[in-house]
Amino acid sequence: MSVSVESGNKGGKKPLNADLNLVPYIDLLTCMVAFLLITAVWSQLARLEAHQKGQGQAGEDTPPEKVFKLVVLVNDSGFNLVADQDQQPIPKNGAGMYDYEKLGNELKKLKDTHADKTDIQVASDDTIKFEVLVRTMDTALSSRFPDISLIDSGGAGI
To answer: Which of these, 129, 117, 137, 127, lies nearest to 72 by C-alpha position?
Structure first.
């Protein structure tokens, strides 16, 4: 910011004219606003929600309840639907394409038998294309499984 001051020499009075250059100040504010907007988006994406489970009463040893695990394994030959300990292969259709319709039907059957189940894991190898994974997740979402996790096939434990 710069200020230019002119002093006039007219008679006994000295008029004071000051011009304040606001352009650098506006440039600084514009850069700051842009920076704050960009960093605000990243701070929300990096947030991880974690909830602490309630503490049990002392002296009680309750066995952990069995969790129904549902995993869709995507590989080169099609899908492998793992429901707890049961595995059901869903091969590619006759045209060599992934059979999303059959996968959706099987997931809807599982949802009907386990209505309280909302989470599903999608496991894949590194060779599977991203579009296949997205369509698999969309199929799981349309089958009423809103909590979808994407994991590596090695981490699936299958």
So the answer is: 137
State which amino acid sits at residue 108. Answer: K
pLDDT digits (tens, 9 = 90+) for 5-16: 555 555 667 767
First to last CA, the chain: 66
Query: Alpha-carbon distance 146 to 110, whole Å?
Result: 14
Q: What pTM was estimated for this model as a whole?
A: 0.58
Other C-beta atoms lying within 10 Å of the C-beta of residue 114: 13
| Residue type (1 letter), 103 | L
Q: Identify the pLDDT of residue 154.
A: 73
pLDDT 10s digits, 42-65 = 655 555 455 555 555 555 556 667
Give the number of other CB atoms < 10 A from CB of residue 107: 22
Residues 89/90/93/96 CA torsion (nearest 10 deg):
-60
107-113 contacts: CB < 8 A, separation 24 or more? Answer: 107/72, 107/81, 107/139, 107/140, 107/143, 107/145, 108/143, 108/144, 110/70, 110/81, 110/83, 111/143, 111/144, 111/145
4's CB contacts (< 8 A; 6+ apart) are: 18, 19, 21
